# Entry
Amino acid sequence: MPPIFEITHKDICGRIGRLETRHGTIETPTIMPVVNPNIRTIKPSEMRKFGAQIIITNSYIIYRKPQLRERALSEGLHSLIGFDGPIMTDSGSFQLSVYGEVEVNNRQIVQFQQEIGSDIGVPLDIPTPPDVSWERAESELAITIEREKEALELKNDMLLAAPVQGSSFPELRERAGRELSGADFDLYPLGAVVPLMESYRYADLVDVIVASKKGLSPAAPVHLFGAGHPMMFALAVALGCDLFDSASYALYAKEGRYMTVRGTYHLDKLQYLPCSCPVCSSTDAEELIKSDNREELLARHNLYATFAEMREVKQAIKEGSLWELVEQRCRTHPRLLDGLRRALSYSEWIEQFQQAPRATFFYSGPESALRPEVVRFRKRLRNFRLDGRVLIRAKRLEIDEDFDHVLEFKAPFGAYPVELKETYPFNAEVADEPDHEALTVALQNTLALMELNPGTEFTFVYEKEHPLMTHMGQKAKLVNFQ
Ligand code: GUN
Ligand code: ZN
# Structure
């Protein structure tokens, strides 16, 4: 049997993939708009126009309401919802986490999803919130995994998702990922992350994603449950999330909120509409604020903005510029910047996946100095065997002396063989004036290189003063080129 999920392009840990379902193949990363079977601001049949390839709805809401249940059983889920592409169904776990109980058990809700013809079904996992005790997280995880394995015994041709839980304990997330990865599931949603996103705990979210991914197979498709704000897609995709779902476009619209990749505006505070989607190009801020139809128009704009960003992310993967996009997007909000910094603390882990050729390294701020390429270079310094007299210089300059090796100094890397000048990542586009962080990392790497080659005589032609230059003076002859 061909694989259900096939990865075709990669950048960082992000990928473009193809996921096969009974109602067609979808290209990931993508977002599944949440369709509420009771309330419809936007008709599911219109969803494709926005870019939706697959939608998600809640089977428990259908199950609980007799009219909906009967129709779903007799005419099928696709006809009930009015969408002929793939439909994923959630199980009622979210209601379980909000109301503490549901009137259905795991076996019943899994079978119901199969009977109504869902393309991807979800067992009744327990979404353990962050910050609970280890004991609670561990015992609820055990029940979740037991239910997921029970669902596997019922497996037919409906694809089966196995949510990864474990609260805010990376050890539990990783263990859950590893245990579930060994079984025959088709999709792995990372669960109970909504509370983290609602409180802007992006650094903790990064921990959850990375821990779960460490346990899961790199070939498995991963869904970030309940993530729908476009400003965080680049970061989550870069860490290996393939599917997103969101009710945000509608929930935000209800509260008069206008989504952009730079964050969310309250419509009443907008004087201009910074978007050219069909909604925004046919009205203006004043008219939209006064419109009787403003909730629906806002939901439409929010959905257009959401899909536009996903296309931007996919383009970045294809051209190998996802890091640059992540760094830009994470400047949207300081807490998202915390998320980026946490992601960079996993540079060594990320580095093992980052094999594909990339576009030119663009230095876009202090965080770039901690990117995996820089970490990798640092690790490889020990491969450079130097002897005799070595010149390290930032600019070409005439020196009437012979050297055995000439190294070029470039922040944030440090000193590297001049022959590699035109190759990745040393062909990086960097600022003429390196910032303090880039210079610090570059000087640290250069010092490390000198320490690895103690018998060598170094001459370092430098331009910018820095506290580390005193230390450098003990290892090399310094020439200030000003
Ligand atoms: N929707 C948002 N979070 C979750 C989760 O953890 N599990 C399920 N089943 N649905 C969700
Ligand atoms: Zn718009």
Notes: The domain at 5-351 is CATH 3.20.20.105 (TIM Barrel). The first helix runs from residue 47 to 50. Residues 90-91, 93-94, 122, 125, 127, 163, 191-192, 194, 225-226 surround guanine (ligand 1) (CB under 6 Å).
